[in-house]
Design a protein that fits this description.
6-stranded antiparallel beta sheet; 22 strands; globular; Nucleotidyltransferase, domain 5; 559 residues; 31% helix; alpha+beta; 5-stranded antiparallel beta sheet
Length: 559
Amino acid sequence: MNSHASSKPLLSPRITRSKNNIFKPNPKYALHTTLQTPAPVAPTTFKQANLLPHWRTAMQEEITALHKNQTWSLIPPDSTQNVIGCKWVFRVKQNPDGSVARYKARLVAKGFHQRPGVDFTDTFSPVVKPATVRIVLTLAVTHHWPIRQLDVNNAFLQGTLSDKVFMQQPSGFVDPNHPSHVCLLHKALYGLRQAPRAWYCELRTYLLASGFTNSKSDVSLFIHHTSGCLLFLLVYVDDIIITGNSESTVLSFITRLASRFSLKDLGSLSYFLGLEALRSSSGLFLSQNKYTRDLLSRTNMQDASSVPTPISPNDHLSLKDGAAPYDPKEYRSVLGALQYLAFTRPDISFVVNKLAQFMHCPSTLHWQAVKRVLRYLKGTTHFGIYISAHTPLSLHAFADADWAGDTDTRHSTSAYVIFIGRNPISWSSKKQTTVARSSTEAEYRAIAGATAELTWIRNLLKDLHISPPRAPTVYCDNLSATYVCANPVFHSRMKHVAIDFHFVREQVANGSLRVVHVPTHDQLADSLTKPLHRKLFLSHRSKLGILPGSLCLRGHDRI
């Protein structure tokens, strides 16, 4: 036997993962994406809807509700009648998470066939102002009141018509015994010119008879005040918010209202007109997360790279940029959506106001600026305004102007942001109507605009039986403008703004307004007058109360 062979150690075969069919996963393949289930597409015609059972059920529910409400009666046709048409409109209603809430079929009258003075007279119907909503929510959160939301079923159908209106029978539901008869409408129907007003008048009459008073500052706000009990009711067509200092009184009135009108009590405020509301023990967070994501999907910008600011300081938008024209229909559609988004996003107010000035002749450069706003929103979809419960009810405002910033007309841009305590309740960014001869004049006009809004807010608070602890303060970074507000002597360069002068000067003189100088870097309305660099813009954004929801609600229990 070979001695070398006997001394050689025995080697066992190496055991590896691959030999045992064990493979270590590659980290790059661990990334996965959950695709959102697309919402069902609503049919556009009766013929399409009639093929699907859930849409047939939805139409039957609508017809049943119309008959139950005695919306019309069938009468023989007459040559003197102006018979208008009707059509079915279908919509998939979604929950905040994108899931299907219900399939809604609505019978709509073709109101464009109506004749003024014959089929209708008055048509105007008010809706609640955004600032009113924010003010009432601020008061409710500060006082820890319950906030409930209601949805009126078939609201327009509950309004009584004072004019005679004739309509064709709806497709799919023609009376077999009277196929040639027409509908004489007794109640309003969606699509009629006077339908919104008829519903508002019906609701208003009931509320006034129930002891409510109509606010003089906003006629869509109703107040009930008796022996220490306060109820506030906000109306936006068929959506209602109700709050008050007694939960039992709130619930009791909801029961009374439901006995008069068919409605759904949706519980605590959570989703109102595209606004998502998250309440905690420390405050209320308002955002338009879903609305923003839907807008990004509609414009195919959901996968775009985000940017830190909505507009670059180097962008100088002009009517005469020499670029090729862009489709005005799409441009206006997206701008309209952005304007609605500014309900909770004052950080985009300036750029949206600027881009809206080119609606009549947008160019490709203007559209590129719109896409930049969308890219900014892509990175901030979860942002919104935070209404803190722990804040005083003092009023103050920041007013600013960018002198001659418009390169086409040399008009200035006025802006203001108004707060109750730390909570922003009203803001505006608007081009001035005349050319200012100096920065003092431009800033002074901005102060006048803020003062007018403050006057309206104080009147609204008076209607709500709320008294701020002291006179409001307007902060301005132009020292000369603050002097003009308190100086009774006209300057030769300011005499042509006498109306604004007397208005603001009178407020300051009687002690109902204070105008105070503030350093430019603390002027929170600055971001609403012109593009800012990233660092300053982000600083102003957080001070305006525009924050991510995760930061606002961190460490606080949700209610």
